[in-house]
């Protein structure tokens, strides 16, 4: 990546969950947004593979989980605004985190940079970082993987 492109970052997308790596990615994204005077877009994905079949089929359960996720992401927004990020937006999705961010969130937000944590919050993916690897491989933009 040439340095001119790095200087022209105006929109940063950061993926968050409750993992330590995602928390670090969020802090890095906030700092970069402040340094570059860039807008910060915070995203989190409701992953249905973490639910059992009864939960998936229960519309009320799904709506409650989405509401909970939206409130959680708004907490990140408040932290970023209080830290001095000039423009902060939130966006949530449902599905596989890596695929949803690459195929749905990035086209909606049109960011210049994606910042993500290296490790997932739980499950076998925690050890392989498969979501981060997927996004680094398939995202149409530069990806900063934080560990």
Account of the protein in words:
- By secondary structure, this protein is an alpha/beta fold.
- The chain has one domain (3-146): Rossmann fold (3-Layer(aba) Sandwich).
- It is 53% helix and 20% strand.
- It has a five-stranded parallel β-sheet, sandwiched between helices.
- Helix 2 links the parallel strand 1 (11-15) and strand 2.
- Helix 5 packs parallel to helix 7 (130-138).
- It is globular.
- The two termini are 21 Å apart.
- Mean pLDDT is 86; it is low at 123-128.
- This is Universal stress protein.
- It holds the Pfam family Usp.
- Belongs to the universal stress protein A family.
Tally of separate domains: 1
Strand arrangement, major sheet = 3-2-1-4-5
**In terms of per-residue confidence, which ranges show pLDDT below 50 for 5 or more consecutive residues?**
123-128
Q: Write down the secondary-structure element order.
A: HEHEHHEHEHHE
Assess the beta-strand content as a share of residues: 15-25%
Spatial extent as radius of gyration? 15 Å
Ends distance:
21 Å
Could you give me the name of the CATH homologous superfamily?
A: HUPs
Total beta strand runs: 5
Question: Architecture, according to CATH?
Answer: 3-Layer(aba) Sandwich
Helical content band: 40-55%
């Amino acid at each position: 990546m040439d340095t001119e492109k790095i200087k022209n970052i105006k929109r940063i997308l950061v993926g968050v969950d409750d993992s330590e790596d995602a928390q670090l990615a969020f802090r890095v994204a906030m700092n970069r947004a402040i340094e570059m005077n860039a807008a910060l877009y915070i995203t989190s994905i409701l992953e249905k593979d973490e639910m059992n079949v009864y939960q998936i089929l229960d519309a009320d359960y799904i709506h409650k989980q989405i509401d909970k996720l939206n409130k959680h992401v708004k907490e990140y927004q408040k932290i970023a605004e209080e830290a001095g990020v000039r423009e902060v937006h939130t966006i949530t999705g449902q599905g596989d985190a890596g695929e949803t961010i690459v195929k749905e969130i990035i086209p909606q937000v049109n960011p210049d940079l994606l910042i993500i944590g290296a490790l997932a919050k739980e499950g076998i993916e925690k050890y392989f970082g498969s979501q981060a690897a997927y996004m680094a491989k398939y995202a149409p933009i530069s990806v900063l993987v934080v560990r």
